[in-house]
Specification:
- It contains 7 helices and 17 strands.
- The chain is α/β, with parallel strands linked by helices.
- It folds into 3 domains: 189 residues, Rossmann fold; 53 residues, SH3 type barrels (Roll), CATH 2.30.30; 78 residues, Beta Barrel (Elongation Factor Tu (Ef-tu), domain 3), CATH 2.40.30.10.
- The chain has a 6-stranded antiparallel β-barrel.
- 42% of the residues are buried.
């Protein structure tokens, strides 16, 4: 087949390309230039922009070198404007609204897959391949494409892919889905790829220092939106008593314990963030537990939106262990999730994914 390969410059996408090339496929490599680090919205102590280990110019150079070594054409897609509009601006707005967003989901489905899929079709590619640890299977009985976890449970990335449509899944290839991370590195070594030992990226690519609040402050200033910067406000307990002050609601997330500036005999945690009243609500650990929540933007992967409630194991953030729950469709892309046992720190803005065993049933965005 003629296949478009998303090239991040890391070991995973490079190994995926090498495996496909060894399998006799015709490849076209694409790297997406997403964010201009020179904008200086994340800077070090010396005032210089901090380098990112994901989507940086160095990664573009690494991806090009791998494509040259493996012998297939390579192109760079400049998606900086789309990335800022579809990923960065919503990320900032979500924090201003008291949420804790996870931009990697939207980046994967709404930007990377959507853009690469269109480009791949325009150059005659039948499939789009990435280095994700996930699997796609076609179900002959109902004609649907199933999204499955990667075999390596420690690296499984199906959580980030629940927004993919049936059309996108029909053209998706995940060559690493059956492999472990060490097997992937060994494959890269066997193919002589110099990125075989390259470190992984863990941070959000446009906030390499992890200082989300600082990034938001600088972004608003750069956009001439200083008046939107969250102001100082009250920290209150769940009874409404004022127990402290905060420097802006965008500095807090549900479940946070450190950095509250409040001293009490028992530990306090952020229970809710209320931008309307400019308050951060804190409580004890048991007050973080929730039996149910609502999800919006729900995408059903395993089947069309069901008429009846669905039993599933539900994850409420990437590192959360799924818990048994009932998912009740509410129409309009919404659903109500109720757990058998209460779960800790269910956070608006995060993605929730519904599983049955290895299969992704669907997912959505946690809302208030």
């Amino acid at each position: 087949m003629k296949i478009a390969v998303a090239m991040s410059g890391g070991v995973d996408s490079s190994a995926a390309a090498a495996l496909l090339k060894a399998g006799g496929h015709e490849l076209v490599g694409f790297t997406m230039q997403l964010w201009n680090q020179r904008r200086g919205l994340s800077v070090g102590e010396d005032g210089e922009p901090l380098p990112s280990r994901c989507c940086s110019l160095d990664d573009v150079y690494d991806a090009r070198r791998v494509a040259e070594e493996l012998g297939f054409p390579f192109y760079v897609l400049n998606l900086e404007r789309d990335f800022e509009r579809d990923v960065v601006a919503p990320f900032v707005q979500s924090y201003l609204e008291g949420e804790t967003p996870i931009p990697c989901v939207a980046c994967n489905s709404r930007l990377k897959f959507a853009s690469l899929d269109r480009t791949a079709l325009s150059v005659g590619c039948e499939k789009v391949a990435t280095g994700h640890y996930a699997r796609v299977r076609h179900d002959e009985t109902n004609g649907r494409y199933r999204l499955l976890r990667g075999r390596d449970a420690r690296k499984d990335q199906s959580y980030f892919l629940w927004e993919l449509t049936q059309e996108q899944l029909s053209r998706s290839l995940f060559p690493l889905g059956e492999m472990t991370k060490e097997e992937v590195r060994e494959a890269a070594r066997l193919h002589g790829l110099y990125v075989a030992e390259k470190r992984e990226s863990q941070e959000i690519c446009f906030v390499p220092d992890g200082d989300y609040a600082g990034f938001i402050d600088r972004y608003l200033e750069a956009e001439g939106r200083e008046m939107e910067r969250p102001a100082r406000g009250e920290i209150v307990d769940t009874e409404g008593r004022v127990v402290g002050e905060h420097e802006g609601v965008h500095r807090f997330t549900v479940g946070q314990r450190r950095g509250l500036g409040v001293s009490r005999p028992l530990p306090l945690y952020v229970v809710r963030v209320e931008p309307a009243s400019n308050q951060v609500v804190v409580g004890h650990e048991e007050e973080l537990l929730s039996h149910e929540f609502n999800a919006a933007g729900v995408n059903w992967v395993a089947f069309d939106e069901p008429a009846e409630p669905v039993r599933a194991d539900v994850r409420v953030r990437y590192r959360h262990r799924e818990a048994p729950a009932t998912v009740t469709p509410l129409g309009g892309g919404r659903a109500r999730v109720r757990f058998e046992e209460p779960q800790r720190a269910v956070t608006p803005g995060q993605a929730t994914v519904f599983y049955r065993g290895e299969e992704v049933v669907g997912g959505g965005w946690i809302v208030r």
